[in-house]
Design goal:
Number of strands: 15
Number of helices: 15
Helix content: 40-55%
Strand content: 15-25%
Distance between the termini: 16 Å
Length: 369
Amino acid sequence: MRILLYANADAAEAGGVQAVMRGLAAALAARGHRVATGWAARSAPPRAGGEDGWAEAFHLRRRDGGRRLGLGTALRLAVRLLRERPQVVNIHYASPSTLYFLAFARLLGIRVVVTCHGSDVLRPLPEDAPFLGEVIGEADAVTVVSDEIAARLAAEGLAPRSAPRVIANGIDTQFWAPPQTHRERRGALPTLVAVGRLEEVKGFDILLEACAILAARGAPARLVLVGEGSQGPALRAQAARLGIAAEVDFAGRLPPEAIRAQLHAAELFVLSSRSEGMPLALMEAMASGAACVAADVGGVARTAGGAARLVPPGDPAALAAAIASLIADEGARAALGEQARARARAFSAEAAHAAYEAVIAEVVRGRRA
C-alpha cells in the first residue's frame, strides 16, 4: 500500500506522538509498504537519513467571521498528494488541518484515517474545538489510543462514521527493561524523574509545587525534568521562587538511552499531567521497573492497571504525600516497580503496528474500519 503519515506536531520535539508515528512508519515500511511522512513543523534540521519527510502546516484562514481553506496552502498540498499518490493518509492528532486532506480525498480517491492521541479530544484548543465534529465525522476511519478518548467522542457527540478503533500505544519492553545489576543511589537525595514536553498540559508546575512541599517538610528530593518546551523559562523561574532551584535538574531533551539510564537510577517516576490519552512516558517508566506516581487523568488509570500510585490531578499536596510515602518505604517501591514492569509487558509495539496496518488495509479496500 501507499501510505502517507502526517502528524500535527513538530518533528523536532520528543513527544509521544512523534515516537508513535516514527515507529509506525518504520514498521509499515518493513512490512513492504511505501510510506511517506509529513509534519506540521520542523523547528530543527531533519534527522540523518531523511526519515522525517517533509514539514508544512495547514492552517485555516479567517474570512468573513469564519475560517476557510487557504488557496495557496491547498494548492501546495494538492501538488504533494499528486506527486506521492498515497492510497490512504493517516493523520495523527485531530485538528482543523485535516480538512485540507478531506477536501482532496474524494477527488483523488484517497482514504483518510484520523488518530486521536489525547489532548486533541480531551483538551482541544478553543480555536480547534468547533471543527472536531467535521474532522471526526468525515474521516473514513478513526482510531483512538484509549477507551477514555472513545468515550469522550461519544459524550461530546463527535460521531465517526463507524465506531472508533482503540489501538493502544506500544513500546519496546526489552529496550526499557532494567539492568541486571542492583541500582545504586547517585546522591544524598532521593531522585524523581519526570519526562515530557515543558508545556502547561504536562503539569510540571504542579510537580514543582509538590517538591517545594517536600522540602518544607524536611524531606527534599532531587527532580530530573527531561524535556523542552515553551514553559521552560517559567518553570525555572518557579523553581527559583520556591527555593528549590538547586534540587531541580532541567536536563533538556535526551535520547532514549539517556532517559532509560535516568529511570533506572531514580527512586520514582512522576507524571503530573493535566490531560493524557495513553502516556508513552508512563509506559516506558513502567517497563523500566520504576515505581510510578501519576495524576489520575484520561487513560492513565487504564494504562497503569493498578501498577502505579494514582493521585487527583492538579493537587500538589496529594502528589507530595504519595511521593513521600513511597520514598519512605523501599519495600513498597520495589513491589510497585515489579508490578509496573509486569503490567508493561501487556503493551506490544508489534501488536499496535499490526492493528494500524489492518485499519489502513480495510479503508483502502473501501470498507469502514
